[in-house]
Design a protein that fits this description.
This protein is of the alpha+beta class. The protein is built from five helices and 20 strands. Strands 7, 8, 9, 14, 15, 17 and 18 form a seven-stranded antiparallel sheet that branches. A five-stranded mixed sheet has the order 10-11-12-13-16, with no helix packed on it. A four-stranded antiparallel sheet has the order 5-6-19-20, with no helix packed on it. It is elongated and about 100 Å long. The chain starts with a helix and ends with a strand. The relative contact order is 0.11.
Length: 323
């Protein structure tokens, strides 16, 4: 027992613990800078090993004070100095386990009673027999390690299983090759009301503007003129329910396409109607949208994160994507 006390109160252990603490805080700073605050919390600040390190530091400091008989009135300055560290550790423990952090936006001249928590929650609301049941649990998601969330939620006498399948930080939809289930996607620049916008027209969908509808294989009905776009043998065609003025952006030559005709929809050609202009930039065949993680450094330029969840009820499972 005496050997254990000497080990716990030794200065060598103090040096080792302080070194590990300094390295851990330094590493956490780089993690927060390169990834996110939440990742730094999950890997370091809120991790069990870091909490154990702080407990060992507190025990080491307290036993060291007892070993060297520091609790003496004549040594009040030394006691005060060392006790301050114990108070800091105690305050950190109280904040960690009983407190909460968040931000409150208060406009000038107004009052506010709501706070946005810093913590991330997975929340589910179940409705049965006109009664609502709420489930909510905090999670810490890391970009560096495997995230685990698997909860059995009891709703009255029935059970619902909620499982995290995948965490996608900085999630963004991108087009990827998919020969099995992929579709054709048209990358277009469309100007409506004088403002240009890059848009993607997927096969089976349509884009509506002020005076016309660009339809790519959907069954849309509209009082506006519908420009039907079709794909035949790798070539795009479009029907013209109204006159278009065209401008070839390569040769700078212009032409007029009369209504009632069917023409090839060409890339790098500006099509102009009364209120809508559009350009086909490119065509991508056999592609589908997939959520991918973008590489973003730090917190300032972060995108939304995505969670792929699986909900199982009465033996039937359904996958959901939450942003």
């Amino acid at each position: 027992m005496k050997n254990l006390f000497n080990l716990i109160s030794s200065m060598k252990l103090t040096a080792i613990l302080l070194s590990v603490f300094a390295i851990a805080v330094g590493v956490a700073t780089f993690i927060e800078s390169d990834f996110s605050t939440q990742t730094a919390q999950a890997e370091v600040y809120s991790a069990l090993w870091f909490e154990t390190l702080l407990v060992l530091l507190g025990v080491n400091l307290l036993t060291s004070m007892i070993k060297h008989s520091m609790f003496d009135v004549k040594k009040w300055n030394v006691v005060l100095f060392h006790s301050s560290f114990l108070v800091i550790l105690l305050g950190a423990a109280i904040t960690r386990f009983t407190g909460y952090e968040g931000s409150m936006h208060i406009r000038e001249g107004e009052t506010e009673n709501r706070i946005t928590s810093r913590e991330t929650y997975i929340q589910a609301i179940f409705e049965k027999d006109s009664k609502k049941h709420e489930f909510k649990k905090t999670v810490l998601l890391s970009e560096l390690s495997t995230n685990h969330f698997d909860e059995d939620v009891k709703v009255d006498d029935e059970h619902v299983q909620i499982t995290l399948l995948e965490y996608i930080p900085n999630a963004s939809y991108e087009l990827v090759n998919d020969k099995k289930n992929g579709k054709t996607v048209l990358d277009m620049m469309i100007s409506m009301g004088g403002q240009g916008k890059s848009m993607q027209l997927k096969q089976g969908e349509y884009i509506e503007s002020e005076d016309l509808v660009l339809n790519f294989g959907s069954d849309v009905r509209s009082e506006k003129k519908i420009v039907d776009i079709s794909l035949e043998n790798g070539v795009l065609h479009m029907s013209n329910p109204l006159d278009f003025t065209t401008l070839d952006m390569g040769t700078k030559t212009s032409a007029i396409v009369k209504s009632g005709e069917q023409n090839e929809l060409k890339t790098r050609t500006l099509y102009q109607s009364e209120k809508t202009n559009f350009v086909l930039k490119s065509m991508m065949e056999n592609v589908s949208e997939r959520l991918v993680s973008k590489k973003v450094k730090g917190n300032r330029n972060r995108l939304e994160d995505a969670l792929k969840m699986q909900v199982t009820y009465k033996g039937q499972s359904q996958e959901l994507t939450l942003m």
